[in-house]
Amino acid sequence: MHPLSRRTFLTTLAAALPAAAFVRSAHAAAIDDLASSPDTLRALGETVLPAELGRAGSAAAVADFQRWVANYRENAELLHGYGTSTLSRSGPTPATRWMIQLDALDATARRSGARSFDALPLDRRRAIVRAELDSVKADRLSPVGRAPHVALALLSHWYASADATDRCYDARILKESCRPLASSGRKPLPLAGVRA
Amino acid sequence: MSAFIGKARVIESDICIIGSGISAAMVADRLARTTSRSIVVVEAGDDVPPLGQRYPLRERYQQYGESPWPNDHLEGYEIEGPLQSRSMQVGGLAMHWGGVTPRWSPADFRARSMFGVGTDWPISYDELEPFYQEAEELIGVAGEQGPPSMDPRSRPFPMAPIPLTYNLTLLKEWAAKSGIATWSQPVAKNSRPFDGRAQCCRNDTCFPICPTGAKYSPDFTWNRLRKTRRITLYPRTLVRKLVLHDSSKRIAAAHAVQRDAKGGGIPVEFRAKTFVVAAGYVWSSHLLLLSQSSRTPDGVANRSGTVGKYLAGHRNQQAFIALPMRMFPGMNGQHSLLSKQFMGAPAGDRYLRHDLRLWESSFARGPRLRGDDGSLLLGDEIMKDWRERTKTGVARVRAYYDVIPDRSSELTLDRSRTNAFGDPLPKLAFRDAPESAALRAYSTTTLQALFQKMARAGDGTVLQTVEDDGRGWQDHPAGGCRMGDDPATSVVDKWGRTHDHENLFVVGAPNCVSGSCANATLTFCALSLRSAREIGRTM
Ligand SMILES: Cc1cc2nc3c(=O)[nH]c(=O)nc-3n(C[C@H](O)[C@H](O)[C@H](O)COP(=O)(O)OP(=O)(O)OC[C@H]3O[C@@H](n4cnc5c(N)ncnc54)[C@H](O)[C@@H]3O)c2cc1C
Ligand code: SF4
Q1: Distance (Å, rounded) from C-alpha A170 to C-alpha B177?
Q2: Which of B61, B199, B328 sits opposite A169 (nearest CB)?
């Protein structure tokens, strides 16, 4: 079966019959798809992430994102709000929606005569992504799971990382990692100094 | 001792503590140390995951926003009004807490005599001071003393302060330009290995979970007391009612239910010489109100009709201020500077007392998808835009200010909502006393003017001011069983003993007469230790 129709089929099924078992198998199938045909996502990474990451850095960011998607849990209890007794839970897996969007990128590329999205040059890929993000009215980097488009999810995931912050500030801040208390009074070292 | 009498399991002890939050931990710790009495602790919620599991739980929180304390609540407890947290588990809310532990100021206990507003407490700061110290030594507070006139204390903190980050050092210099003295916020986080727990490694998820144990949480006390068999703790056991002795006004028993996984449970009766309700600002009053009988139609300890009344707390104003200095947010973001400069006598001619805290912030300095002109940013553009905007920094400044509670600031029983056992749930409504309500606009404008002054002193700009009162809520809630010398207007005496029942104590948060203008939990701990001393003395 062509991946597009299989993914679409599973997603439609999950939406029509949102029983936990169907949703789970749609999630699992989407994860399989991601693992077995990673080229579109890899190409999307190179399209939306900063070029300074290089191919290896971008591939690593994409692999991290894939792990995030694979380990997503539906209906998990979320952190309590402060000042309220209302509880909240995580929603359905975004993986099925994002698979369809990846397929749509390929389909758009094929319509323009290319073999697939990853076969297009960077500027053409970027034009496609821009059009997609405009069509979902994306205006901010949202929490990963709530991203309306897979391109945004990938961006949100990487920009939330300690690596992204350190690159922005060109400083080894290493947010949310264990660091000696004693060194906190010092200005963080520049990355170049650390890497050299 | 435990036996079955009729259908109920009966558990006897000298002291029965209801609740296992931080206040309960203080009481149990002191009584275990200073007496040989048998102690039972009854907790409605489950045990918490052990320390060894907290890194993976933290990881799920960081990656997916999942609660790092799974199943830490009772089902069906959605209540009307602003509940501080749904959390009910061994350790209580202080499993989630940020560990920020300022003392309150002497003026908090004397607002009526000093400023002609509110109600004086029946105790002074000086009477509470030794118990502040004891609490700091028990939970392990790392702190720096501010100028003694603003921050009096008799002995040093048990640990040196958490060092200021590079960012906070810059902010301290900036605050000084406005004449504001700031210092490292005291916190229950280890600046060195302490009490068998690790040194803080500033990985910055204190709220909601510390994976190293560097932040104090009550499970550490419970683990120790359980290991040495100084207490017996009954988790998943909800006390539903306190029952009077047939022939006296003493409390004879606490009727409880040991909850099962299906939503039901088996009855348990706790009998003790002394009962200590340490169930926090909501559930303490709630239990007293639920304990109705023909002899106590309005619940126990409620001769004054003030159980559940005078809920107290503070409100805040905060500002995000852009400053022409380069900061590096993420160095230890939950740590802050503190000033108590405005916690003494009001600076103006009207009553406004507040604390002041300063943090690094990435407000308006995060990566973004659209540029100023609305154009979509992709690839290198996002990073370029982000780098440009982070050449200058942002400070978060927040002032908690004192709100005088009204009698109608209250917890009542909500007959329209019941728990799985048919007991009405509580309903909460916070209300300012008329003098505070009249000062609200003044408080807002005065604090906003202070933020503007601070911004100007650093050539900065106030980006946004926010009041955190969206849900009619006041922070660090307390009250409901306030202390006082007069049984007609208060629920407990100055030791936390109920006026009506000589063997019933209510401790910690509910005892507060007012809510001050700084984080409250250290004060709840000090009050609880003071009550524990009295319990031990009189048994
Ligand atoms: C996210 C968060 C961050 C916070 N950060 C800070 C901070 O940095 N600094 C600060 O000062 N404060 C902070 N607080 C507030 C602080 O956590 C609380 O003030 C404190 O933990 C309250 O302790 P307590 O013992 O009074 O009550 P609780 O912690 O509420 O303990 C009461 C216990 O009693 C149990 N119980 C209730 N009813 C019954 C019953 N009928 N039978 C049996 N058991 C019962 C409950 O399950 C609960 O475990 C924070 C709170 C939250 C939620
Ligand atoms: S900064 Fe990290 S190690 Fe320190 S108290 Fe907070 S969570 Fe624990």
Answers
A1: 29
A2: B328
pLDDT (tens digit, 9 = 90+) per residue, B452-505?
A: 999 999 999 999 999 876 667 899 999 999 999 999 999 999 999 999 999 999
B251-259/B265-277 β-pairing: antiparallel
State in Å: Cα B215 to ligand 2 middle.
Answer: 6
Residue A195 pLDDT > 50:
no
- Using CA of residue B519, residue B524, residue B529, residue B533, what is the dihedral sign? positive
Distance, CA B93 to ligand 1 centroid (Å)?
3
Amino acid B470: pLDDT: 60
Count of the separate structural domains present in chain A: 1
> What distance in Å separates the CA atoms of residue A187 and residue B367, rounded to the nearest whole number?
22
The minimal CB distance from B380 to the residues A51, A80, A87 is found for A51
Beta bridge partners of B9: B4, B268
- Given a cut of 50, the residues of chain B with pLDDT beneath it are none
Q: Do A76 and B383 touch (CB under 8 A)?
A: no
Euclidean distance between CA atoms A35 and B96, whole angstroms: 37
Per the CB < 8 Å rule, is A139 touching B370?
yes
Count of domains forming chain B = 1
pTM confidence score: 0.95
CA dist A52 and B408 (Å) reads 61
**Secondary structure in 3-state letters for B461-505:** EEEEEEECCCCCCCEEEEEECCECCCCCCCCECCCCEECCCCCEE
Interface test with B, best of A184, A186, A191, A194 (most B CBs within 10 A): A184
Residue A178 lies in a domain: no
Residue range A168-191, pLDDT digits in tens:
999 999 999 999 999 999 999 999
CATH number at B423 reads 3.50.50.60
Q: B376, A87: Cβ pair inside 8 Å?
A: no
The token duo for B214 is: 């560097």
List of residues 6+ apart from B399 with CB closer than 8 A: B316, B317, B318, B342, B354, B355, B356, B357, B447, B450, B517
Nearest-Cα residue of chain A relative to residue B168: A185
Residue in B169, B200, B383 nearest the CB of A50: B383
In a domain, residue A164? The reply is: no
What is the distance between the alpha carbons of residues B466 and B320, in angstroms, rounded to a whole number?
9
Number of continuous H segments (helices) and E segments (strands) in chain A: 9, 0
Q: Which amino acid is at B296?
A: T
pLDDT in tens, A123-170: 999 999 999 999 988 889 999 999 999 999 999 999 999 999 999 999
Q: How far apart are CA B3 and CA B8, in angstroms?
A: 9
Q: Is the CB of B512 under 6 A from ligand 1?
A: no
Range(s) of the domain holding residue A51? 6-74+88-159
Check CB contact under 8 Å for B163 and A71.
no
Nearest CA-CA distance, residue B498 and chain A, Å: 28
Is B208 touching A (CB cutoff 8 A)? Answer: yes
Nearest CA to ligand 2 atom 6: B206
The CA-based angle B194-B195-B199, given to 5 degrees, is 30
Q: Any residues with CB less than 8 A from the CB of B500 and at least 6 apart, and which?
A: B249, B300, B301, B302, B303, B487
Residue A165 lies in a domain: no
- List of chain A residues whose C-beta atoms are within 8 Å of the C-beta of residue B70: 77
| Average pLDDT value over all residues in chain A | 87
Domain range enclosing B151: 2-538
Q: pLDDT tens for residues B104-131?
A: 999 999 999 999 999 999 999 999 999 9
Phi, psi of B22 (to 5 degrees): -65, -35
Nearest ligand 2 atom to alpha carbon B198: 3
DSSP A161: S
Structure tokens at B178: 């406005």
Give a yes or no: residue A96 inside a domain. yes
